[in-house]
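Trying the structure run again after the queue cleared.
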Amino acid sequence: MLRAQGVIAVPANRATPVDDELRRYDEYMDHVRGLAPKTSSIALRIVGRLLTARFGKGAVDVAAIEPEHVRRFFAGQAKLYSKPANAGSVVASLRG
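Done. Tokens:
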């Protein structure tokens, strides 16, 4: 409300390269694949973790992601799930 009234400033957009790539991916999922917002949200969270793990705060080069990077990322993510079937959202998100 205070921002809308101009009382406090809107924070400066400090988007990282990962943020920029995720924005483009979100547009792709919406316009090309027609995914529901909930599905896109899950995919963005997972792909964001992959991109951050691979590139940190540096420039994102999707072409530089190799199968071994994805395998290592997936192996790390799989440890977070109690049942193998629950890791399916990770696989689906990376399929993109």
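Helices lie at 17-31, 37-55, 67-78, 88-95. Worth checking whether this holds up in the mutant runs.
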